[in-house]
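Inputs:
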Amino acid sequence: MAGAGMHPYHQQWAAAAAAPPPPAMQPPGAPPAPPPAAAAVHPVPHHSPILAPEEVRTIFITGLPDDVKERELQNMLRWLPGYEASQVNYKGEKPMGFALFSSPPLAIAAKDNLQGLVFDVDMNSVLHTEMAKKNLFVKRGIVVESGGYDQSKRMRTGGDYTHPAYVSPSPFHPPPAPVWGPHGYMAPPPPPYDPYTGYPVAPVPPVPMVAPPPVPTPSSYLPVQNIKDNPPCNTLFIGNLGENINEDELRGLFSVQLGFKQMKVLRQERHTVCFIEFEDVNAATNVHHTLQGAVIPSSGSVGMRIQYSKNPFGKRKDGIYSAVAPGANGNPTTMTFQ
DNA sequence: AGCACA
């Protein structure tokens, strides 16, 4: 079986979620949704200067048995390159499946591959696939129809085919000769399917997998005694961070604060402290207030103390001011003024 | 209470 390829990482939703919510999906044969003025459905994509029509990368699947489970469909589809999400719509007479792929070519490849597949021998169900009219709308990992009724029909899905070179050892074996339905779509017949090499798909530039960095928010706040603060400045001094404070967590917390410029951690004998520079005193003051006493996981059960720094960034004790200015060659040059 | 770096 598929060892390494089995667990989808659910990475591809962001792009889909960024798409504007389309109207509720229609099966390819269905009449178009309420015609908004003259801008009805054009057979040829018409180039609106305002909104380019979205490329369809969703396939429409019929021929599913009445008792098909979304899970069944998903477990079949997840092996197909570029698979992102799927949904079964039970609203009509027969269940209608929709499957979103990462690109139109991958959707077409999947459509051709699934065409004529015997989904259930006993129930004599043979799949029929077409390109959908609209893309399946995926929002934050949850498949939704933008028409938005009946949340109970939603499901979580996902695929992990960002690697075009990866060939899945598919557990299913489509019939050698696809059965063509009565519809008019005439694509060149797919090459013979080899379960050990998969079907050919157009190469897609690999999408770098970027693990989203954890963005810590304070898990709680504890009262801190903050007597003897310094005069307001653009730099905060953070103390009372606990024994084993994690620098990345700290950075995650502070780097998202408005006006954040830089952070410097100072590990000392017993105490770790850190300095945060902000754009201006205002930004520093906000954080001074909002995060006072904040507790993050690695700080244990203590709330951090936030004070203004004695020696703000860019200001030296000896009164020498420094600034970074572009030099004659365009490179930053540190200039000091007395 | 622990305040560096330019």
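Confidence is low (pLDDT under 50) at residues 1-24, 32-48, 146-195 of chain A. Flag for discussion at group meeting.
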